[in-house]
């Protein structure tokens, strides 16, 4: 395949060399004549392990060249990859002007091109950019998206220092598009890589790079704050974190990575508070750890506001314990939410198959007596009647089967805090954060 790459910076230079090594002929495009000249001398535009060797070898084979002539590059290729910069403004917004200028250039070149052309956005962009790029190309070229061209989002996950290695060994290749022919063509670029190709919605593909890097920043900050606390206690922080990383069942895993309601129970709130207090008592500031509880409280507010916006006052509350399969009500976010709703004048019917007033003992009983002293008047084992007598059904346990009660739920507002399984999404269904 003949490919044109717009932008010969970090991502563009690595892509230029690696795609060529994979068997493609590649044309680099850049406004900088210096970068163009470097490529046309067989030299890399960046300092990065192995890329200088790859560029030299592929140039000597006659498989790569560079130009400032975007018109020529687009017309000579069947697929264009956008790798131009998206710098951040002082306010944190992205400057997408280079992306949009490139879209205009591709649109101009496509005016006189009869064959279908695929545009790939490799740069890190905000959700909605793919759509905007398509609109610009349509406007400038006069062609229709999906007929004369298509735009595919294909975020890169390259790290400086290991970019070539990362290119050939990605954990996953993400493609977001709305045209099967274009998706298949872009997928073929990665067919020899030993990694899965995930095809998803365009906006999901646009957002994932931000989520990935934000989590990486979170991990670094978390480890540093643990390190600061450990140092204050004269504990080897690397031994602590090495031990932390051995748990691939919960710590380094998919566990807990499902957006939903707040955390609770007798362990997480207590132990987080203990670690934060440990730092505080040793005069160690831990802003990230300190912020976790307030973020969790905010998620409870989000849930309440979602209910309040319905304007309805009769609530069937499904699931009161902090986790299904248990009757543990201690520090359950559901108890907090129920307590707030009652205080605001809502009428609650609470159904939880595992919570029985007569069986609550010890700290569990003391907690509920303090927060929901009239639970015996609110709790019911008749879920059907509770749904029928309510305007809103609030789901807090994943084991609740919506399909079983489809007839009773037909005219009810359904608010889901945990994302239960649904065969079909009811028209009156709302998820907490999805």
Automatic annotation (TrEMBL):
Annotated binding of NAD(+), by residue: 30, 35, 86, 124, 160, 270, 330
Keyword list, A-Z: NAD, Oxidoreductase
First-level EC class: oxidoreductase
Superkingdom of the organism of origin: Bacteria
Annotated ranges, domain UDP-glucose/GDP-mannose dehydrogenase C-terminal: 316-423
Pathway(s) annotated for this protein in UniProt: Nucleotide-sugar biosynthesis; UDP-alpha-D-glucuronate biosynthesis; UDP-alpha-D-glucuronate from UDP-alpha-D-glucose: step 1/1
Residues that hold substrate according to the record: 157-160, 209, 256-260, 264, 323
A Gene Ontology BP annotation from the UniProt entry: UDP-glucuronate biosynthetic process
Reaction catalyzed: UDP-alpha-D-glucose + 2 NAD(+) + H2O = UDP-alpha-D-glucuronate + 2 NADH + 3 H(+)
SUPFAM superfamilies, sorted: 6-phosphogluconate dehydrogenase C-terminal domain-like, NAD(P)-binding Rossmann-fold domains, UDP-glucose/GDP-mannose dehydrogenase C-terminal domain
Pfam families found in the cross-reference section: UDPG_MGDP_dh, UDPG_MGDP_dh_C, UDPG_MGDP_dh_N
Active site, UniProt feature: 267
E.C. code: 1.1.1.22
A Gene Ontology molecular function term of the record: NAD binding
Family of the protein in this entry: Belongs to the UDP-glucose/GDP-mannose dehydrogenase family.
Stored PANTHER family: GDP-MANNOSE 6-DEHYDROGENASE (PTHR43750:SF1), UDP-GLUCOSE 6-DEHYDROGENASE TUAD (PTHR43750)
Name of the protein described by the UniProt record: UDP-glucose 6-dehydrogenase
């Amino acid at each position: 395949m003949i490919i044109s790459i717009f932008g010969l910076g970090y991502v563009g230079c690595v892509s230029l060399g690696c795609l060529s090594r994979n068997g493609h002929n590649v044309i680099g495009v850049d406004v900088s004549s210096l970068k163009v000249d470097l490529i046309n001398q067989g030299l890399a535009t960046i300092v990065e392990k192995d890329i200088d060797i790859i560029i030299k070898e592929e140039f000597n084979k006659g498989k790569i060249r560079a130009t400032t002539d975007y018109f020529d590059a687009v017309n000579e290729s069947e697929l264009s990859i956008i790798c131009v910069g998206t710098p951040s403004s002082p306010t944190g917004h992205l400057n997408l002007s280079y992306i949009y200028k490139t879209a205009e250039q591709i649109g101009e070149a496509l005016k006189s091109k009869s064959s279908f052309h695929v545009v790939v956005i490799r740069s890190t962009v905000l959700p909605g950019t793919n759509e905007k790029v398509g609109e610009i190309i349509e406007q400038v070229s006069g062609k229709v998206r999906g007929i004369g061209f298509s735009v595919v989002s294909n975020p890169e996950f390259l790290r400086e220092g290991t970019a070539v290695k990362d290119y050939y060994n990605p954990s996953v290749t993400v493609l977001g598009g709305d045209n099967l022919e274009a998706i298949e063509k872009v997928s073929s670029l990665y067919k020899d890589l030993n990694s899965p190709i995930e095809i998803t919605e365009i906006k999901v593909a646009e957002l994932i790079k931000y989520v990935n890097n934000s989590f990486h920043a979170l991990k670094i900050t978390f480890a540093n704050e643990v390190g600061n606390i450990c140092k204050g206690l004269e504990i080897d922080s690397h031994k602590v974190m090495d031990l932390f990383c051995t748990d691939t069942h919960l710590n380094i895993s998919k566990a807990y990575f499902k957006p939903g309601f707040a955390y609770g129970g007798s362990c997480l709130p207590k132990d987080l508070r203990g670690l934060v207090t440990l730092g505080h008592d040793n005069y160690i500031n831990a802003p990230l750890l300190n912020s976790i509880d307030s973020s969790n409280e905010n998620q409870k507010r989000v849930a309440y506001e979602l209910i309040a916006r319905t304007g309805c006052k009769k609530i069937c509350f499904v699931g009161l314990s902090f986790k299904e399969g248990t009757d543990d009500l201690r520090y359950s976010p559901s108890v907090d939410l129920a307590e707030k709703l009652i205080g605001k004048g809502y009428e609650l019917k609470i159904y939880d198959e595992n919570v029985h007033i007569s069986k609550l003992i010890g700290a569990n009983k003391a907690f509920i007596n303090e927060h929901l002293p009239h639970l015996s008047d609110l709790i019911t084992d008749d879920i059907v009647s509770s749904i029928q007598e309510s305007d809103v059904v609030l789901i807090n346990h994943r084991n609740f089967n919506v399909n079983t009660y489809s007839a009773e739920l037909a005219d009810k507002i359904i608010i889901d805090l945990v994302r239960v399984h649904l065969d079909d999404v009811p028209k009156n269904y709302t998820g907490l954060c999805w």
